[in-house]
Amino acid sequence: MAEAGSTYSDDMRMKPGVIDLTQNEDLLEVSEQVNDASQASQKSNAPVASSVRELLECPVCLNAMYPPIHQCINGHTLCSGCKPRVHNRCPTCRHELGNIRCLALEKVAASLELPCKYESFGCLGIYPYYSKLKHESQCTFRPYNCPYAGSECTAAGDIPFLVTHLKDDHKVDMHSGSTFNHRYVKSNPHEVENATWMLTVFSCFGQYFCLHFEAFQLGMAPVYIAFLRFMGDDNEAKNYNYSLEVGANGRKIVWQGVPRSIRDTHKKVRDSFDGLIIQRNMALFFSGGDRKELKLRVTGRIWKEQ
Ligand SMILES: [Zn+2]
Ligand SMILES: [Zn+2]
Ligand SMILES: [Zn+2]
Ligand SMILES: [Zn+2]
């Protein structure tokens, strides 16, 4: 039998309380939970809770079901997302599905309270079944996706994990300090499609920032864009400013902006033009020489808003 407060089943958090079915008192506890579902969160029981969880799993897509939960005339349940996809046949017994809603199961679900799925990342929140999804979509402990976009990378984790990952697996340049001076050289600037995507990481103010530089097509015109992303959430990103400068021959373009959180994909930032945009002709002019090579020097600074 489990010790108080130490039992976990699946991701179901147990409330403190020793459950020993050999004692009448505890048997009473168990039956109370079954009879009064609203108490389930106060005194939980692993077998009851996990079997309810199983009942709430759609047999087709295996996701947790949310109202409206449907059932066939034999009582087999199905999620509303899968219902239109099974051609009105119960996937379990092949009977016609009709339009029967399973209110009882919807109500049982309402009585469940579950830990946030990012518990292992440090979130201690416990949420009612129906508000858990909303919380998880905004949970500050939810992992960040790898900000490197040169290839499809599925790595995700917290910021220290991603910094190590960028260093070790993507071999990105890491710099410390809040000012930088970076050269972008490309031998064939007329190829926009396969333009190398570059990422540099800066650490300053105890935070990490990613400098992106890439070529893309803006309408008919090939352009370059440089922008900064903050390795953290948007509310913290707003505390910083940055400037980027590119130029030569007595001309320069200056951009001042607010770094975007890496919660926003690099593509989203790029497509909103939230950065220093350099027309190709201007970029080649800044490169000097014979226009066969792109040679841009981007200087920048990051500072904290007071
Ligand atoms: Zn489903
Ligand atoms: Zn059925
Ligand atoms: Zn959470
Ligand atoms: Zn990665």
UniProtKB/TrEMBL annotation:
Family annotation (CDD domains): RING-HC_SIAHs (cd16571), Sina (cd03829)
Record InterPro entries: 7-in-absentia-prot_TRAF-dom, E3_ubiquitin-ligase_SINA, Sina-like_RING, TRAF-like, Znf_RING, Znf_RING/FYVE/PHD, Znf_SIAH
Gene3D superfamilies: Apoptosis, Tumor Necrosis Factor Receptor Associated Protein 2, Chain A (2.60.210.10), Zinc/RING finger domain, C3HC4 (zinc finger) (3.30.40.10)
EC number, UniProt record: 2.3.2.27
GO biological process: protein ubiquitination; ubiquitin-dependent protein catabolic process
Gene Ontology molecular-function annotations: ubiquitin protein ligase activity; zinc ion binding
Classification via Pfam families: Sina_RING (PF21362), Sina_TRAF (PF03145), Sina_ZnF (PF21361)
Pathways per UniProt: Protein modification; protein ubiquitination
GO cellular component terms, semicolon-separated: cytoplasm
Domain SIAH-type positions: 111-171
Domain RING-type, chain residue ranges per copy: 58-94
Alphabetized UniProt keyword annotations: Metal-binding, Transferase, Ubl conjugation pathway, Zinc, Zinc-finger
Catalytic activity: S-ubiquitinyl-[E2 ubiquitin-conjugating enzyme]-L-cysteine + [acceptor protein]-L-lysine = [E2 ubiquitin-conjugating enzyme]-L-cysteine + N(6)-ubiquitinyl-[acceptor protein]-L-lysine
Transmembrane segments annotated in the record for this chain: none
Family named by the database record: Belongs to the SINA (Seven in absentia) family.
Protein name, as recorded: RING-type E3 ubiquitin transferase
Organism: Coptis chinensis
